[in-house]
Structure formats: C-alpha cells, structure tokens
UniProtKB/TrEMBL annotation:
Matching Pfam families: Ice_binding (PF11999), Por_Secre_tail (PF18962)
Secretion system C-terminal sorting domain location: 1069-1144
InterPro entries registered for this protein in UniProt: Ice-bd_prot (IPR021884), Ig-like_fold (IPR013783), Secre_tail (IPR026444)
Keyword annotations of the record: Signal
Native species: Flavobacterium gillisiae
Name of this protein: Por secretion system C-terminal sorting domain-containing protein
NCBIfam families reported in the protein's UniProt record: Por_Secre_tail (TIGR04183)
Taxonomic classification: Bacteria, Pseudomonadati, Bacteroidota, Flavobacteriia, Flavobacteriales
Family: Belongs to the ice-binding protein family.
The organism's place on the tree of life at top rank: Bacteria
Amino acid sequence: MGNSTLIIKQKLSQGILSFFLLLICFGFNSRINAQTGPNLGSVSNFVLFTSAGAVGNTGTSVITGNIGSNIGAISGFEAPSIVNGTVENVNAITSQAAIDLKSAYDHLYSSTATNTTHAAVFGGGESLSPGVYSIGAAASVAGTLTLNGQGNPNSIFIFKIGGALTTAASANVVLTNGASASNVFWMADGAIAMAASTTISGTFIGNGAVSMGAGGKLDGRMCSIAGAVSVYATTVVNIPASLVYQSLEAYSSNDWKPLIKLANFDPNDDQQSVADTDFVGNATHAIMETQRSTTKFSDGVTDEVYYFRVRMGQSNPSTSFYFGIDVTGDLIADLFIEANTKSKPNFISLHKRDQSKTGLSPSQTAWLNGVQNGELLLTNRDAEIRSYSAGTDIDGGNSGTDYWIEFGITEESLKSYVLSNFGTSITGDSVIALYGFTSTSQTANGDVMGINDKIAGELDKSWEELGVIINGTLNNIASGEILRPTVNSLTTDDTTPVISGTWGGNMLGDDHLSVTVNGITYTDELYINNTNWSLTLLYPEFAVGTYEIVATTTRISTNKTSTDITSAELTVLNVTEPTTVTSANDGGLESNGDLATLIAKRNFNRIKTNSFANKKANQKRFISSSLFAKTSGSSVDFSAVIPNTGLLGTETTFVSSPTDLIGITNAEQVYSVDYYQGSDRVAAVLATATTGAVYSHSKAICDRLNSSSLQNIVTIKLNGYEVILVELKRANGLTEYAVNFSIQQLSTENKLHSYWNIEQYPTGNYQNFQVWGASTAQVCHIAKTIISNFEQLKKLSADAVDNRIPTVFVKNGFYENGKINLTIINKSRAFNLSFEGNKKITELATTESVAQNVVLSGAYEQNVVLDLGGIFDIGLSIVGGTSKQLDALYLADGPWGLDYSATETTISSFVINNIPNTSIIDGQYAVERNATVNGSVYGTMNLFRNILPGDLVFDASSYTTVGFEIQNSLAVEVVLVTENTTDWNNRLRFQLPANATAAQMNIAFEKFTNPLGQKYNNEKIKGLVFSVQGDYQTYKPFEVAVSQLTFKNSNSLGAQSFENQVAQNLYNYPNPCTNSTTLVLPEETQSVNVKVMDLLGRTMLSKEYDSIPANHEIAVALDNLKHGVYFFVVTSDEKKQFQTKFIIK
C-alpha cells in the first residue's frame, strides 16, 4: 500500500509548537484496517429499525431513541411503555435509513478480519481487545464478555457472524478501559436472538429477525435488513450518547486558498508510474488548496476544522493520504493521520511512526498499522474525506479529468491524540511546515511535490534539502494569512551584533524575508534556519543607542506583506575598547605547495638574524608623502595613499614592511604600516605592487592556515564600491576585521576589484591592499581613505559582480594524521558540497588531484573529516550545493627544509620520504615524513623541520622528550626552536656525536640549554634544527638522515633516554664570526684556558673560564680583533690541549 503525511513539530524549549505537514498520496491495497466502524448515516438516529419487516413490543419497555420501519407495521409501544423519540413508518426518512443500513451492513460484511480463530461461543469470563472477529457459522454469547478498549476511547470492536447470533440467559457484555458502545458492532448473516436478562452493548444488524428477551438491557441499537425487530417487557434500549453528535460534513464554501503553486512542476514525475498516485499542478492551477471552518456540533461543542484538497492526475483516483506530525522538534514525524479514499466507506485514522526508519527523508518515512500498534479510528464526528472532479486535465493523456481529493479534520482530534500519546499540547496557532508526496507502499517512495523524483537518489535527500517545506500555523495556512515575523530584543556592548527572530518560512519559495536596520535592507545576508532567522551586522558599526529593527515577510503570489509589531529591539551599551591586532609585518603569506619551504626558511632566517619588524620598538615612524609627488622609475609610493592616522585621528603609525616577501611571492614592491593607540596596535595595512597578476596571497587564506577562524564574510560599500569584509577570530580569541581590494592600473583609468578567489581577478598590473583592525569602523575608515586618494589620482571605476562571496565556506581547518579536518560554515543551508584539491605527499613530490562529494546536515556549522592519507600539503576548494561561489584555502603539515650558504655548502642529495612511523604508541605525537641530506660542508648546513605550518607553534606541554632515529657522519647540533627564540646565539641546543649507523635518540627537553645556562621552560615549539658544522678550513663530506621524529612523555619512552655527549673535536660557531663566537669543547671539564693566536703564533687574547655549562659551550668575546685567520688553543684543567682555526670577518 502507499501513503501520505502531515508533520507537526513542537519546539518545546521555546514553548512554540512547530508542525511539519507532509501530504502523501498512494495506491492503497486492501487490508484490515482502521478496525473501521461503518458510516451509519441517517440510521444512526434510530434505536430500533428494520428495512423490511414489522417492529413490535410486548409488555412494558423503555425506549430512548427513534423507532422506524421502511416496510411493515410498528406496534405495542403505547403506554405504559415509554418512547423518548419519534416513530417513522414508510416515508422518505425510513427510505434513506434503509439505504444507509444496507451500506453499513455491507461495510461490516467486507471488513477484513483480525481474528478468524475464535470459538463460536464468546464470553465465559474472557476479555477481548479491539479488532474484527469473524465466525464462519452461527455464534453465541454466554456468561460475561469483557471488551477492553486499552485506553483508547475510539477503539473499534466488530463481530462478523456467518449465521445466526444468540445470547444465553443473563449473558453480560462489559465495556472497560475506554471501550464505547458507539464503537461496538454485531453483524449476523441470519437472525439475532438475545435471551432474557441479557445485558449487552453495541449496534446489532441482522439479515433476519432481531429480538431481545424479557428483562434485557441494550446500550445501542437493533436493526434488520430483512426481518422483524421485537423487544419484550421491561427491556430498556438506550442509544449511545456519542451518536447524537452531528457528523463532520464536506466544506461547502468555495473559498479555497492556493497552498502550493509550482511553475516548474512536472505532472508526470511519479517514479512509480502509477497514475492514481501522481499529483498535478502548475503556476496557474494549485497542486494543493486549503481553508478553515469553525463548526458548532449538536452537542454544543465548537471546533476548528482544517480542510485540504490535492489535485490528482487520475479521474476517480484510488488512493489514500497520510499526514505525519512531529511533536519532538527533530523534523521527524512521530504520528500519522491516514485519510483513506479507497476503502468503502472512506475513513480517517491515526498511526504511530515506524521507529525502524529515520524519518528524515521520503525513503525513510514510514508508519505502523493496526490497533495493536496504536492505530486509532476517527469517527465522522471528527473527520471527512471525499473526491470529485477538479475541472482540469493538466497532464493530458488517458488519465481523464484531474480530481480533487478533499479531507477535513478537527483541531480537537489532533490535540487529543497528541496529548494522550506524547504528553504535548498543540493548537491551531502552532507553527507547521507542510510538504507532500505520493507513495505506492507503506513508505514515502513516490511522487514528491516540487521535484523530479525519478532522478536517482532524490528520495534519499532530507525533506529540508528537497526544499519542499511550507511553514506557518495551521490557522494561518488554512486562512491564507502570512505568519507575522518577530524580532528578538537584544541589549549588548557589541558594536557588530547578531540580531535574530522568527518568521513563517518561505512557503515553498512564495514568501521572502527582509530585515531593515538604520535604513539598510538586508535579504541575501540573512541566515535562514527553517522558521528562525539571524543577521550579523558587521558594518556600519553601531554607536551607543537604541535601534529599530523591522522584519518584513512578502508573499510574491499575492503581493501581501506582514511586518513585526515590536519596536526598539536593539540597544547598544557603552562600547568596549578595541583589542590589539597582528602586525602587517606578519601578513601577506598563506603559503602554497611551491612556497612552503621558502616561507619556512624565511621565518627561520628571521629567527637567526633577529630581524623582527612586528614590534613597535623595532619600527620606524611612518611619514606620509604628497599624493602628487613624483616617484622614480616604476616604483609606487604607497606612503602617498596610506593615511598617517586612523579613525580617531590620534593613532600613531609605524612602518612594518615585510620586505622578505619579495623574491618568494609575486610582489615586486612591499610596504606596510601598523597603527597604534598608545601601545596597542589597532590596525594594519599591507600594500604590494604586482605586474601581470593580482597579489597571490589573501589574508583570509593566510590566517586560516595559521589557526584563525573565519567567522563571517559579507560585502559592503565603501565610497560606492563593493568590497569584501571578513571577520576573523585568532587563536588567542581576539577578533580582527579585514577588507581586501586591488587597484588595477589601466591607461585611462584605474579599476577597483575585490573578489574572494584569486582566479576571479583579470590579468593586469595591480596595487593591492589588505587592511585589518580591531573594529570595522577603524578598518573601513582607513580603506575609504585609501580609495579616496586613488579617486583623486585618476578616474576610478568598478565592475558590478553577482555572487562575490561564498555562502558555504571553511571556518577553519587543519591536517593531522592523514586526515583533513574542516569546520564548515553553511549560511545557505546546503546539504552537499564538492571538494577538490591538489595534494603532495612530501615536500618534493609531484601533485596529485583528489575529489570527494560530502553530505552536509544543513546545520549552520558542521565538522567534516576527509581521509586523504598522509600528505605534506594541499590546496583545496569547496563549493556548497547552494553556494554560487567556491571557497579556496591551503592546508599543510610543517615542512622539512634546508638552510645553508651556497658558498659554504654543496648539496648532493635531499630526499624526503613518507614512510609512516609504525612504532607510535598512545601518549606520543608523530612528526610525519623523514629526511635525508648529503653533500659537502665547509661552513654550516641546517636541516630543519617546522612542527606545524606557517607561523603556528606546537604545544608540547604534554610531552617531556623528543625522540628520533639519526645516522650522521659528522657531529650534529640539535636545536629546539621555541616561540621565545629571537636571538640565534642564545638558542636551545644539544650536541650529538657522529653515528656511523642509525641510532635511536630520546633527548629530554631539559637537556636543551643555551650559552647562558638557560633550559627549556615549557615554551611552545616552532621546530627542530639539525645543524652540521664544518671547520671553515676544508670541505668535508657529510650525510644526515633523520626519521621517526616523535614527541614523547615519560610514560611512553620506547628506548633509554640519550644522555648528552660531547663532540669529538673542538670547534666554534659561527665561523666566520665578528665580535664573538661560541666554542664547543670536545670533552667534559671543570675549567679551561682559552687563547686566541694569530698565524705568527702571537697570543692575541687569553682568558680563564672556571665554570663550564652542561652543554660544553663557551661564549668568547673577541675584543675587537682585526679581520683575519686565527687559532683557538684550549687547555683543560686536566692539561689536555685542543685547537681549531677560525676566521674573523
């Protein structure tokens, strides 16, 4: 069989009930159902009735209800008997009642049995649960029979007897636990005779005479389709109270409201190719319509009734509907309403969800059947269903005229079922979302409204991903009203606040939300999550004060709007002082596969030479130049366009230019300025000049590599030009805002460009600007000033561009143990993304292409892990399914690299392999890849490994030791480079002797010391350097192979810790040197005498050193000796003498 669904969702945490209404139409196979009672029609008004026979009474009886016969006399009911009702005999009323009685008899006769094995005698103290009990021949009731409704007031009991039905004297039928006389039916294909003193309940319909003996009591009715009906003295016949209710009727008004109109709807897209299950409709003729009625029933109860009708492509479709209701807030239907139009008569019942399915998608939506599984039949008091011609033929062909299938259901029936089964209260003012599909089985695998479900995999997508959800309250949907949006009140000291609220949803694309703040209307910038919305207001920043937020929903089809009714929703308190930001001297690089080692070497050189211009003390004051001053050659005077102060006019400016970008980037000229408020850096500008292409490194990519998080991306207007503004949160928790733009140098004008991806920029010569700071006001003020200065120089233009930024992007990411870990921001609720990348498995390998499709949940933020195997680096891009722009970034591991002077070292071979370290155990951190280098060394050769990429530092607080395997033909100095290593002469180091064969080393961090005697002090680690020192006299062949580099703790050491060993020969470094150098002693000693002698043997310097550090190194001041070649002669207190040659430059 097939199905259809209405889902109702409750947000318990907010006290707002939210429904998902999903309409399912399906081909319905006959089944035992609904333990469905017949529709008695007008015969329900009678307590004694026969279609063809007399109705008689003997003795004194009390009758409550109408008496009637369509063919035959009525007698014996005069006083002293009492009749509380009317007597109808052979008239139009009895004629209709006879027709309705036959229909009810046929319904009972054709009902599918749930029990065919019961004995022919009922009673004897037994208790029965709801169901259809079928006996093929005569049957009887004796003793006590209990009918247990199992707590369901609408439980149905049907007894189908294939012959006569009798009761023994004093037989007693007891109703308990919710069972109702109005829902008990006895049908006999023969006579029915109830003996004296029988007490029984239900509606009796016989195909023969029907009688009750003296003293009997019946709570129900006695009817015959072909025989007399008779009662005897003292019989009391009471009609069940519930049967005096008025039946719910079809909605007579023609005021139907179109609910689903889809211009792109394919009327022949039912994947099952079953015409009965195919919805049809288009932009003119709605697939679904609705309306609402307030109905007063004859019992005085007034209830809301919700009517829906769906257009089907087949005349007289043989189908059914299901409605799923979500009451737990997880977008999964917990219960279903079945509206069956195939079974005769039609019926509506409630079902519980099939928990074996997830319920998230059409292919995973299912429900349970049968009273034993909680199915509940609704009477015609609470529901109606019918079908009729729609007067259209949208799909053409041989299917005939389109048909409406209409159904209505009372609000009270929904409320009662949800409350009794889930303990949750719902009303017509609860928010719902409505979507529809057809099916040919008990799962939703058929025709989904609004999509072509013949496409493979479509029905496995979530309902939300399919985009076929309509939101609103039951009352508003049924009346065609727009659910009024709301704005949440917010008091904050954040000048870039996030405001939020609710709305009714997009009504399948018909409704659109806009939010207006300070005269600016936002639409595309809104983040929509079902019925919730939010908006981050990055620019312009808010001053202290109170602001009006206006949320408006516009319905395109009717051109109607609905606006929130609150005011003064946003209050901004005293603004928090901005925090400090990073220096422009540290910007401008995100690295890529070709530059990673060069950038690492640049950073290494900065440490060796102590050339850091990222601190105010090391920077020169910035002096701006005249805007129209002439420049020499082709150089650009950036000091003419960069402002000399910031937003407040009190900021001081200092030059921080990272000139070492030249040569490793495509920048031909670099200039940067840091802005200070007191000692706090509040903004920075990095400017570059490039030829042929835009500058190839962006701040958003650079900072994400260096552990910052990209919080948001928006476009803003500065001086009328659209530029990109980003919000970044650095690893230290501080926030930076940044804009980037480039000025293309053309012959007659300049053109401003601001794009997300480098590939979007046209070829040409550019002046490129990255501006960042602690507030958007500061950043935008500086950027606007730069743009204004360019406007004065030459005409400035810009191209209008759609989809400038992605709506699905990487917040942050990192590589670890063969896996790429990405945090995705999904502002447009995409449910899939395409991933492409070019990876290298080592620093020296060729690139490999990789691609994957990733399923998203639709959540605003989601973590994604991509298993790509071991890599060195990867340049990657992602495109979300709903994003019109891709996002690109670069991720990497820390690189291996070499640092040496080509005049002092020759390299014969440098090899990096990706052989994994299989000896890693818990509590250890493996540094991937192994390096081998060989050649000839005269001076110094450094093999280095940055632990993490870019400027990141490694937190080694969980470790105590660094371990590795090394084979080295010459002595090696191992340097531990930390975040505090700014003076290379005071680096933390450890000496290793030569190892002709591979040796396993485990060096405790505390063994690393510097010439000042200082030890490692739990600083974060940048990397390790394996330094080979020549003697500056002759070239010596060397080889160093380092593998299985691992950080360990004291509990995970796999080998005995390596204790410090001294070099085999005396040497010094640096060599050549200038004013000082460091001597490395070849053995342990308590004190030494150090002499410096020239080539003539003259002693130029002599000094005693009484305390030798544990690392056996002595810092020697050279007392301004002249340039030349000298010898160190060192005599230990053991009277051993060593010497080595060195050069003073």
